[in-house]
Structures are given as structure tokens and as C-alpha cells.
Specification:
CATH architecture of the largest domain in chain B: Beta Barrel
Structural class of chain A: mainly beta
Oligomer: heterodimer
Strand order of the largest sheet of chain B: 5-13-6-7-10-9-12
Order of helices and strands of chain B: EEHEEHEHHEEEEEEEE
Number of domains of chain B: 2
CATH class of the largest domain in chain B: Mainly Beta
Order of helices and strands of chain A: EEHEEEEEEEEHEEEEEEEHE
Largest interface: A-B, 35 and 39 residues
Largest sheet of chain A: 7 strands, mixed, barrel
Helix content of chain A: under 10%
Distance between the termini of chain B: 45 Å
Distance between the termini of chain A: 38 Å
Radius of gyration of chain B: 18 Å
Strand order of the largest sheet of chain A: 10-17-14-15-12-11-18
Helix content of chain B: 10-25%
Shape of chain B: elongated
Largest sheet of chain B: 7 strands, mixed
Chain lengths: 287, 205
């Protein structure tokens, strides 16, 4: 940790704010998952917009509600889910003593707030990400926290606004590929996966999206030995309705994976809210 | 052996048994296959997570098929001794499941040579496999909501130690004061795939 040159004081938090970076790498064999930002594209953009080094830590703010005060002049940016009433995908300066209020987003679920220099809390096992399932990394952000800002950054990119697509409202379509246990399911089940709308339930979180729909039927009803899992896995528990794994997914799982959402599309899944509809297709999508 | 794609950036190597898993895990690690950024061994599989900016799945799959597994390298690393007080709530039940009494369970558990087959469930939780076999213990029919940290337990063909308090369905046979996952220690995890383990009886209920 470098000596902090500035800090941000948290005055209020919304439903959930955590520190996230690119995650922990190469420790799966020790039972330690990657974690990191749920929407990796928005996370990377946030760091780029303020000239941060790759892998710098940011705040992942779920459904807004965060109120911060700058303790010195800082440059910051928000990406991902847009908070109404303030610049978005565009760097801004917050002067010492000024406050920033993140309102609940109009579309999407997760806003990324990067400050130039990065959130400089101590690393745990090589990352500043909070892994909620494993209980690793910094504590969930609470009112009263003082977050140190680092001094590691490059030149500002000289871009005022990044023209990127915003998180979608309504129905979202993502590309899937057959998973390693596709053959455990009937062909009808595979067709049903592709032809029905799934609804995102309130039991969804950083571990995964729990989806509601018509249950899928298995051909093989045997027990699967636990095997390694990757983000984007569509695991089918006994209920027959999928769980789509996000950043804090378990390292191994004992239910068959019928398919995988392709990696880039998982970022979009990380922006889905309760009640939104998700559809799967095998077609390649152009975004 | 089968090599199955697992999404856009991972391969799942399917094997026949734990010994093959450990042999493959060792081979992949020692060969340092290019583009492989994480390896997750499990009971019958080894998952390889791949940096698709550096290589592609087909390339890694071909390299895997040419690997020579290292069956002689089942156990690697320093023996870890775990002091156990055999006072678990399920000790008698485990005895009846295995067709013996509690004393015999303790004698066999402490006399067995265990190897960490893989980790998962929680950071530092090792699935230990016994060399002599014969461990086949069904889980609790309904998991406990809280298992205390340090609990020594059995389930299926494995023994394990709960690193922290969590829900759990394994049969509890004792506890240890040894911290198997300690962030103040480097490395924090005492048990890693291939580590040989002995349980040493230090007390009874």
C-alpha cells in the first residue's frame, strides 16, 4: 500500500457497496475463487477513464444509495448503471469537502465508481475484492468508513465522455454454448432453455442469478461429483431452474452445467435486476 | 480421459478416479501449460481456466492430450500432522454406518494416510482421501445450520476440516485447535492438493 494522498468518507451506503478489482488469480486449487467486479467491462472502463493502472480497485455500488465526501480534491467517474442527475461515463472533479450522491439507477443494477489513484485498502491474497461467498477481502462498505485513495496512476486519457452502451431495461438476450453436462438433459430440455423467457428472482446476488421458469428435465439422474465451475455457468439444481454464476460463484459445484453464457455476455447479466427477463440463444450476438 | 469445453475460457478434463486427477493436476502444474491461468482439481475432473487472449481452447486441449500424467507424484509436499480430539457428535453413528464401534473409527481415522485430493467449499477446505479406502460415509440427511470451526468430519470417501463456522452436512467425529486457514500465515492454506496428512489423537470425549 502506498501512502494515501486523499481519502473518501462514506456518509451513507445503499443496499450493498463493496470494493472490487480484477479479482484473485490462480488460487482455485486452494479453494479461493476469482471474485472481482460483476460487470468487468464497466469496471475496466471506469479505471481507464481516470487513467488508473489496470487492476486498480473501485467501488461496486448496487442500486445506488451511496453518499461520499471527498477529503481532498479527487477525480472520479461512474460507469455501468447510470445514476440520475450526474455525469456518467465522464470524469468529474470533486473538491475537498464536496459530496457525491449516487441515486438508484434507472436501468441496470451496479454502478462502478473509480477514483483517480484507486481505492487503496490493503490487499488480501493479491486482490482488494470482497468475495461475499468466501468471506475474503475488505469488509462490505459501511457508513463512517474512510477509504484511502492511492497515488498510482498514469496520464488522463483525454476523453470527456465514453460512448458505451448502457445496461438494458426489459428483456435481455445472451449467447449460450452447450456445457460439459449438456448430455445429462433431454433434447427437449435444451430446446426449452433456448425458447422460454426466464425471470430474474430476488434471490439473486453476486454469487449468481437465480432464474425462474419451466423446470428442465434430466436424462441422467445420477449424482455428479463436484467439479470446477466458471463464471457464466448455467447450473441446474434438482428444482430444474437455472442458477447463472456471477463473480463470487463457488469454486466447485455438484449440479450439472447444461450450458455457459459466453464470457462477454456475463457482464450484461451482472446488470440484471429482479423481475427482468432473460433469454438464451445459440446465435452470435452483435453488440 | 475426455476434454470438454466449459464456456468460452475453460476446459474440463474428465478422469476415472482421484489418483488420475492428482497425476493430471501434477502434470499440468509441472508443464506450466501456456495460457493456463488457474487449475481446479476436483473428485473426477481437473478444470483449466485459460487466458483466451494468449491462446485458444483447442491449443490447450491438444497440449493436455499429449501430457504424461505423473502417477508416482500422488503425494507432494511436507506431511501435515493434525492433532484431533475425537469428541464429535456423530462418532457413534459413523461407527454404525461403517459396521464398527467408535473406538475402531478413531483407530482407523488416525491410522490412515490421507492425501489432500482437492480444495473447495470454502478457502482452505481440503477434501482428504484415504490410501486404504473403505471410507464411504453418507452425509447427514439434513445439513447442520452451523458447524463449529476446526470440526473434523467425514462424508463420502473424504475427510475434511471446517476452516470456519459454516453450515455443513458432513458427519462430525472430532475437532482440532489447529487453524487450517490463517490469513496471517504465508501461505494461509495448510492443505493444498497433494499434501499428505496424518491425524494424531490427542483426546477423546
Amino acid at each position: 500500500m502506498t501512502a494515501a494522498v486523499a481519502s473518501l468518507t462514506v456518509l451513507e451506503t445503499g443496499p450493498l457497496t463493496t470494493v472490487q478489482d480484477a479479482g484473485r488469480f490462480g488460487q482455485g486449487a486452494l479453494g479461493i475463487g476469482r471474485s472481482g467486479a460483476c460487470d468487468r467491462a464497466a469496471y475496466r472502463l471506469a479505471n481507464r477513464m481516470v487513467g488508473n493502472v489496470d487492476g486498480a480497485a473501485v467501488l461496486e455500488v448496487t442500486f445506488g444509495g451511496l453518499v461520499l465526501r471527498a477529503d481532498a480534491d479527487v477525480v472520479l467517474v461512474t460507469t455501468g448503471a447510470r445514476s440520475a442527475g450526474m455525469p456518467h461515463n465522464a470524469p468529474l472533479t470533486l473538491a475537498a469537502g464536496e459530496q457525491l450522491v449516487l441515486r438508484p439507477p434507472v436501468t441496470g443494477a451496479r454502478t462502478y465508481l473509480a477514483v483517480r489513484g484507486g481505492i487503496d485498502v490493503p490487499e488480501v491474497l493479491g486482490s482488494r475484492s470482497t468475495d461475499l461467498l468466501a468471506g475474503l477481502g475488505p469488509d462490505v462498505i459501511a457508513a463512517g468508513d474512510r477509504l484511502p485513495v492511492g497515488r498510482s496512476f498514469g496520464p488522463m486519457p483525454g476523453v470527456d465522455v465514453a460512448a458505451v452502451r448502457e445496461p438494458e431495461a426489459g428483456e435481455v438476450v445472451v449467447q449460450v454454448q452447450p456445457g460439459p453436462r449438456r448430455e445429462w438433459f433431454t433434447d427437449d430440455s435444451w430446446e426449452m432453455l433456448l425458447n422460454q423467457p426466464y425471470s430474474v428472482t430476488a434471490q439473486s446476488n453476486r454469487v449468481g442469478l437465480r432464474l425462474d421458469g419451466v423446470p428442465l428435465e434430466r436424462v441422467n439422474t445420477g449424482e455428479l461429483s463436484s467439479e470446477g465451475m466458471v463464471r457464466g455457468a448455467l447450473q441446474i439444481p434438482l428444482s430444474g431452474t437455472p442458477v447463472l454464476f456471477l463473480a463470487d460463484h463457488p469454486i466447485t459445484g455438484g449440479y450439472p452445467v447444461i450450458g455457459y453464457v459466453v464470457d462477454d455476455d456475463v457482464d450484461r447479466c451482472g446488470q440484471l435486476r429482479t423481475g427482468q427477463t432473460l433469454r438464451f440463444t445459440t446465435r452470435r450476438l452483435n453488440h | 480421459m475426455r476434454v470438454l469445453p466449459s464456456g468460452s475460457n475453460a476446459l474440463l478434463i474428465e478422469l476415472d478416479d482421484l489418483d488420475q486427477v492428482l497425476a493430471m493436476y501434477t502434470a499440468v502444474r509441472e508443464e506450466c501449460l501456456s495460457g493456463v491461468i488457474d487449475i481446479v482439481p476436483a473428485a473426477r475432473t481437473v478444470l483449466l481456466v485459460i487466458d483466451t487472449a494468449a491462446t485458444d481452447l483447442g491449443e490447450v486441449a491438444r497440449a493436455v492430450l499429449q501430457l504424461r500424467p505423473r502417477p508416482e507424484r500422488r503425494a507432494t509436499g511436507q506431511l501435515v500432522e493434525i492433532p484431533v480430539t475425537y469428541d464429535g457428535e456423530d462418532l457413534d453413528e459413523v461407527g454404525s454406518l461403517l459396521g464398527c464401534d467408535a473406538d475402531e473409527v478413531v483407530r482407523r481415522h488416525a491410522g490412515e494416510t490421507w492425501t489432500v485430493a482437492f480444495c473447495g467449499f470454502a478457502p482452505g477446505f481440503g477434501y482428504l482421501s484415504g490410501a486404504s479406502g473403505g471410507w464411504d460415509v453418507p452425509r447427514q440427511s439434513s445439513p447442520r445450520t452451523t458447524v463449529p470451526p476446526g470440526s473434523v468430519a467425514l462424508a463420502g470417501e473424504f475427510s475434511g476440516i471446517y476452516p470456519r463456522s459454516s453450515p455443513g452436512g458432513w458427519q462430525l467425529i472430532g475437532h482440532t485447535e489447529l487453524d487450517v486457514f490463517d490469513l496471517q500465515r504465508d501461505p494461509p492454506a495448510l492443505l493444498r492438493p497433494g499434501t499428505p496428512v496424518h491425524f494424531v489423537e490427542v483426546g477423546r470425549a
